[in-house]
Fold each of these.
Amino acid sequence: MPRTPGLSARWKFTLSYAAIVVVAGAVLIAVAWWYLLRYLPDNDQGLLFTSPNRYLLSRIFGRAAAIAMVFLVAFGLLGGWLLAGRMLSPLDKIADAARLAAQGSLAHRIRLPGKADEFRELSDVFDDMLAKLESHVAEQRRFAANASHELRTPLAISQSLLDLARQDPSRVDAELLDRLHTASRRAIDLTEALLLLSRGDRRLFDRLPVDLSLVAEEAAETLLPLAERRSITLEVTGGTATTNGSAELLLRMVTNLVQNAIVHNLPAGGTVTVHVEPQHQACVVRVENTGRVLPPDLVPTLTEPFQRGSERVRSDDHAGVGLGLAIVHSIVRAHDGALDIAPRQEGGLRVTIRLPGR
């Protein structure tokens, strides 16, 4: 934003300090003049040391007062300039860090030494902002690279199949069409997942009352055929728990959790439990499943986009696009909630979501 040139903060501080010093000195001189000279006789006769009078004393006092005022002006300007430079030096460091950040360098930190004050608090807040911004930018870069890589695979497969069909139309059969449909379906699913993830991050939805118990029942009813095909017992327990949010996004959140719990489970005979309850002015949704024992270092990476983990990769038609838990995490954050993922000792995961109660 273009601005007209003006005095720097240092000059404003200097002039303000000098003005305060001069005004304070003038008040002291006026008070001394008033109380010292008002009680002396006003005549020009007599000696000062034998018969003090206002005339002689005012001539001496006036000259000294003028010299003092000149000294106060000089002292105010010099002292204000030095003091302003010392007091505003942290702002110069903060401004330099802001310029570096504007140029794209987010690794720089101010780290002002010394005890806590307003400038150091501002410096610490700015450092925290830079750290979070650097982490967010790095995450977005990884996300863009992974999204490009994930999209390139189905598109490259589709391109190869179409080239094959153009070169030899007689080889167009049901198998080729099925492979082309699968590749296209995967690209569409990935695109829809990316759009949903973006929508959750931007919080573009209306907040209305939503009963999470009904959402859990709807998600379980939708995925019951998948659970039955895999011989997995799916159960919904708990009671009414109402929060404010988007019914569509919350349904997608629970559906993703239940689908992950079904897909990443035992080959047969596994269980999935969805429990909903109000708790301390909050709504709790807990999804537990059986499965393999997961290493602790794998769990924190499950909410990152396209991070599937070698132990959780599936080769069937429900392999997914690697955005299931990332979408869940995005929706939970958009609803001002908290997501906790913990491995169960006997195998599988326990995912707990806490959302604000209505």
Note: Residues 309-318 have pLDDT under 50 and may be disordered.
Amino acid sequence: MPTMADVARSAGVSVATVSHVLNGTRPVLPHTRQAVLDAVEELGYTTNTLARALVTSRTRSIGLAVSAISNPYFTEILQGVEAAALDAGYSLLLADPHDDPGHERKVVQLLHERRVDGMIVAPSADPRGLLSYLERHDVPAVFLDRLVKAPERDGGPRFDQVCADSAEPTSRLVAHLAGLGHRRIGMVAGLPGLSTTTERIMGYRSGLAFAGLPYDERFLVHGDSESAGAEVAVSALLSQAVPPTALITGNNAMTIGALRALRAHRLSVPDDIALCCFDDFAWADLFSPRLTAIAQPSKDIGARAVRVLLERLAEPDRPARTLRLPCAFVHRTSCGCPSEEGTPS
């Protein structure tokens, strides 16, 4: 098996230079870097990750704790995280907390015991155990998608956070439906306790106020961020004596549940009820009618979270920050508009 010394001899450089190229610990002239990479390729050299970890106390690995299996939205975030991590020379260890606070605490500890350099976590609705563990063990971490009120250090926030804007885009959906003449606009909100749920409800209520419409608590139901929960919630909403004429769903899973409930009640979209959803997804324009949606920059959220975590590892004492990425309004026809733009704005 070729060694780093063999690579150095082949490239005509020092072992230290080879180390700097492979580990990214110091800038190297482009032609020198290329000579090292060519030698690595020619000799078939592979890095001894374990040995490097013992020397540097770094494993060049990132732990990712998101409910990727149970929530399709996180699948795209995972793609963004993986691509950015790979580009930076980091491997990825994935754990699914299933949006359960107790399990969340366990998987974070498991990732920490695997000696990941840092973590990216989509917190549950009750992240107290998570925060306590990360704080106690001083684990570099970035929260994505969902914000938390984390412990502060030296008068400032303790953890970096990356998410999309939630309130204004939801308000925009309400304004759009109100502009089409709807006066009874319902909303299927997510799991209580999640910042995304709270902010989208805020956007819903502010959108109603801006449109001069009263807030009716009967029109706000919780689908708990899941398809089955949304199906039950929408069925209850539609069973009211005077049901809404338009509906906003708080995420893509709940959109599916809402559509099932509408079908069970033999209601046609948008002829009988208009529908807009928060979260665009790959097949949203394959439905008939095509779904008007708020598209989150999910892959960019994942990639930004990786970059923020790497910046945190490079500068452990820098102030924490929260990054909010803008969403796009994708106008299709489920809202009742005759046009089929299908383009973000």
Note: The chain has a mean pLDDT of 89.
